[in-house]
Write a structure and sequence with these properties.
The chain has 116 residues and is of the alpha+beta class. The chain has one domain: Arc Repressor Mutant, subunit A, CATH 1.10.10. The chain has four helices and three strands, in the order H-E-H-H-E-E-H. A three-stranded antiparallel beta sheet has the order 1-3-2. The radius of gyration is 17 Å and the shape is elongated. The termini are far apart.
């Protein structure tokens, strides 16, 4: 399937752009290095969040295996003491059809910058 790009009124064709959420990381380690600091920052804020909310708002790339790597990321953050489970919510992800997803909240240690 090809995507058509509308030329500007002066006849020039704008460069095609992809948001980070439209691209997929090549390998897990590269993706983890990109998203880890973002989730540490969100955890330090101490508010309740979902993975998709953070990924959408921060325009993060999808991991190589989205069905498993997002959950693995949150397990790593939990094991390191940065986040804890906060409950459940309906997903905002368009393909999830409002199914239930876990919500997370940064720990006191994450807010103080001394987790792990």
């Amino acid at each position: 399937m090809t995507t058509l790009i509308q030329p500007a009124l002066d006849g020039t064709v704008p460069a095609a752009t992809k948001t980070a959420s439209q691209r997929k990381a090549e390998d897990y380690e590269t993706w983890l290095a990109e998203v880890w600091p973002v989730f540490l920052e969100v955890a330090a804020a101490g508010r309740t969040f979902t993975c998709y909310e953070v990924a959408k708002n921060r325009d993060l790339a999808d991991p190589p295996d989205p069905a498993h790597h997002w959950g693995r990321l949150m397990t790593l953050l939990k094991d390191e003491g940065y986040v804890r489970t906060a409950g459940w919510a309906c997903s905002d992800r368009p393909t999830a059809h409002h199914s239930g997803v876990r919500t997370w909240r940064g720990t006191a240690a994450a807010r103080a910058g001394r987790a792990a």
